[in-house]
Amino acid sequence: AGFSAAAPSLAQDAKPQAKEQPRSQKFSDVVLYQYEACPFCNKVKAFLDYYRIPYKVVEVNPISKKEIKWSDYKKVPILKVDGEQMVDSSDIMDKLFQRIHLDNASSQSDEEKKWRAWVDNHLVHVLSPNIYRTTSEALESFDYITTQGNFSFTEKLVAKYAGAAAMYFVSKKLKKRHNITDERVSLYEAAEIWVDALNGRHYLGGSKPNLADLAVFGVLRPIRHLKSGRDMVEHTRIGDWYTRMESSVGSSRIKE
Q: Which residues lie within the region annotated Disordered (predicted)?
């Protein structure tokens, strides 16, 4: 998962966290190696936030990747849980979920599995063509990425302009590869497909979010305050679900 853009949701840290949240005392030292903007990293964060697992973040420099030199695995996210390395966002969610639910081994429904696969195989591919749709949107995305990342001043400039230009062209290729003719239409369609899947429920999980809810919310959270995310909430019915998710997920990131 390389760059994919993001924007800070300043509101989410300030929200009071609901009392009935699940809590996890099973982990003492959790560190996420990530790009702030990567949708797969944001899926893992949505899980950690919802389950109130405090975690530290190490922002990986996407050019040098010096922060993950110690690992044989060269992609993000990498999650270190009490010294153990976990990789691949869906796999990380499965492993943590199993640890949390040891006592009552909750199994996932077919519906939940189906929608988690939809996130990885469809939804994430719709995002890049949208956030890099125009040169100004590509710059907006990289502006955010470089303010979050671990960059020197020169690296910031290079990453912002070279990165935005490169991703603008990459996104055009991705459009072709995934047969996307109109970026926004495909984003709006994906949002509506998800709302239809909820079928009137508060969450796909019913009264509480399940892993599919967390996956969809995680990959959308970084785009929410970019132009593409604002357009999506304005032109589709996803806003109510998104707002509910925002207040129930909260944040358990440990600020350095």
A: 1-22
